[in-house]
Amino acid sequence: MTAAPTPGALRLAEHRFFVGAPSGLADRLEPLAVERSYAFGDTLVREGDIADRFVLIYEGKVALEIVLPDRPSVTIQTLGGGDVLGWSWLVPPPEWWLDARAVKRTRTLELPAGPLRAALDAHPDDGYAFLLRLLPVVAQRLDHTRLQLMDLHGR
Amino acid sequence: MAARSLPPAAEEMPSPWAPVPFRVAQRTAETSDTVTLVLTPARDAPEFPFAPGQFNMLYAFGVGEAAISISGDPAAPGSLVHTVRTAGKVSGALAAAGPGTIVGVRGPYGSAWPLAAAEGKDVVLVAGGLGLPPLRPALYTMLADRGKFGRIEVIYGARTPKDLVFYRQVQEWRARTDLRFQTTVDAADRSWYGDVGLVTARVPDLRVDPANTVAFLCGPEVMLKFTVQALVAKGMTEDQVYVSLERNMKCAIGLCGHCQLGPEFVCRDGPVFRYSDVRRYLTVREL
Ligand SMILES: Cc1cc2nc3c(=O)[nH]c(=O)nc-3n(C[C@H](O)[C@H](O)[C@H](O)COP(=O)(O)OP(=O)(O)OC[C@H]3O[C@@H](n4cnc5c(N)ncnc54)[C@H](O)[C@@H]3O)c2cc1C
Ligand code: FES
Q: What's the half-sphere exposure (Cβ side, CA atoms, 13 Å) at B19?
């Protein structure tokens, strides 16, 4: 993983997560954002590590993998441009519960959990607006997990 | 009294029950339980025209008959292409039929994907598992006349990478610039670099104009239901969506009632239906 050569080239306001958000929310969080790029095979987050950031993916592909001790790891979902990774930083204990690995060159903006939490706590309107955008992401993942359990391809 | 001979026209008319013999010319393994068969007429026979979405009753001699969709190119009616997954006795016998085996064919039967209604519009095809074979004739037809359609988007999902059919052809389609063909699997190991996730998860990212789009869906009914929900969330209406349904069949010509779905006979009125016309029969709770 490398810090990007041109920090700031990506803008929070342009990410799908912030589309339609109250004006200024993305701009107020922009100073916290760190641009990163990952090469094929790089690990973004590792299961058990502290969930220390909120990741917005702009381009590329990230595989979410569950690592099992007695068999090969299983990819349960891939994320791409416009997707976000992680609400684990909001849920105690703040730990990643899976691995995320770049399977294509991937560019992200990342908001460190501590300062992000402090910014949202300091401006509850922003905090509420942020959670309103995060909740549908969580709900959608939950729906997909349910459908996966139902086995869409079963008769 | 001597039997009166029938007028010549009626004599030449094949009985709707009599299977026409075809020979397996080619058998290609698609997955561990699925094969594609290319059939050619065993006797001199006229070509076999069909419309995308239609099916035939294939007869494995001595075993029985099964409804199988036609998965080949309607522009090449000289041979018949079918993709068969082993589900039981009949499909198992068909899937095991090697080159030279004689198979009986009745058909083509049923309704077709409404390609004329799709002209001038964006078209979304969503296939789950063995839902791709019945959609392939529609894709062949649209690509042969590409200018008639707006954007064409295909989402093809399977349980694992090993369950994907037409693998090489799918790679070719994915490389085309006049078509966006997305493949996704429900779960995979690290050797798979493609997308992982349900077909429904790819719907929000479709680059189509929802008001001017038609969607053709084929796959297990649970997949159809949730894909329609996702398309509606995207801004489409249920009457813009067509689905291909499967019911157990016997006669395939609207006589026996085996395939009944509400007032509809899937063999005659389907298998392709407008979703808004059949949704109430698909949401009936099990008693
Ligand atoms: C319009 C239509 C198009 C079809 N197209 C294809 C195709 O392109 N390729 C293909 O492999 N199969 C297709 N099928 C399904 C195929 O007809 C059945 O798998 C086959 O008839 C099963 O017969 P069998 O004797 O092998 O299995 P059986 O011993 O009769 O059944 C084995 C299992 O399959 C289930 N089953 C049987 N028939 C159906 C059915 N119609 N739908 C869902 N489950 C069923 C049974 O409940 C049982 O669990 C289609 C069905 C229809 C109605
Ligand atoms: S299969 Fe006999 S009516 Fe449809």
A: 21
Give the fold, CATH level 3, of B115-244.
Answer: Rossmann fold (3.40.50)
Fold of the CATH domain B17-109: Elongation Factor Tu (Ef-tu); domain 3 (2.40.30)
pLDDT, mean over chain B: 89
pLDDT digits (tens, 9 = 90+) for B182-199: 999 988 888 888 899 889
CATH number at residue A99: 2.60.120.10
Of A64, A80, A152, the CB nearest to B128: A152
Q: Which residues of chain B from 213 to 252 reach within 8 Å of chain A, CB to CB?
A: 219-220, 222-223, 226
Residue A57 lies in a domain: yes
**ipTM of the prediction:** 0.74
Domain spans in chain B, listed from the N-terminal domain onward: 17-109, 115-244
Report in angstroms the alpha-carbon separations of B110 from A11, B5, B83, B250, B258.
53, 32, 17, 13, 15
Residue A1's pLDDT band (boundaries 50, 70, 90)? Answer: low
The predicted-structure confidence for A106-139, as pLDDT tens digits, reads as follows 999 999 999 999 999 999 999 999 999 999 889 8
Name the residue range of residue A50's domain: 2-6+25-153
- Considering only CB atoms, A153 lies closest to which of B159, B197, B226, namely B159
Ligand 2 binding pocket mutation candidate from B255, B261, B264 (most atoms within 8 A of CB):
B255
User: Which residues of chain B form beta strands (DSSP E)?
Assistant: 20-29, 34-41, 55-60, 64-69, 80-85, 102-109, 122-128, 152-158, 180-185, 195-196, 213-218, 241-244, 260-261, 264-265, 272-274
Q: A13 lies in a domain?
A: no
Between B110 and B43, where is the model more confident?
B110
Residue A56 lies in a domain: yes
